[in-house]
Amino acid sequence: MRDYTQAREIEVVLSEIADQVAGRLRHHQVQGEVVSVGIGYADAEEAGTSGFGAQMKIYPTNHTDDLSPKKTSASPTVQFLSGPLTFLPT
């Protein structure tokens, strides 16, 4: 296990997770309306925290594009669903 520190790497991981979740939703012919993300660290002791999580309500969907982060080219911010997720410098 490793920590992802670059915004592009995090975007790729979130996109892959969104694609897997959307595929499972479509397979079961259902839609989701709450998205939860939990972030942990490879070495929680070194990071000084075990991690954090967030969730938000969205319009019901099972489409990958609705669940994937949307990168804005102007800043190191990923537009995730309807809210921004800003990456802090490391």
Automatic annotation (TrEMBL):
Sample GO molecular function, one term: damaged DNA binding
DNA polymerase Y-family little finger domain boundaries: 2-67
Tree of life domain: Bacteria
GO BP field: DNA repair
InterPro entries assigned: DNA_pol_Y-fam_little_finger
A Pfam family: IMS_C
Protein name: ImpB/MucB/SamB family protein (Plasmid) [Lactobacillus casei BD-II]
Organism: Lactiplantibacillus mudanjiangensis
Species lineage: Bacteria, Bacillati, Bacillota, Bacilli, Lactobacillales
